[in-house]
What does this fold into?
Amino acid sequence: MAIQFDQSGFELAPQQIGTLQRIFDRICFEARIPRQDIRARRLAKFLMDELRFGNTDEVALTECGRWFCRR
It folds into this structure.
């Protein structure tokens, strides 16, 4: 199992990367945010921060991401 690091040095397991990617793709699609848009970058950072702070539940992370896009 390969472990990857984000820019802060936080370890990400492949399963976590897959979860974050699914959530990110789903929210970008729902909110019609282009993946290269600054809003998408902010969303990605927000989701990474949430994961770092211990929010590891996919449903909860998805809801947090949706909230972030609505605010």
In short: Confidence is low (pLDDT under 50) at residues 1-5. The chain is about 65% helix and 5% strand. Residues 12-70 form one domain.
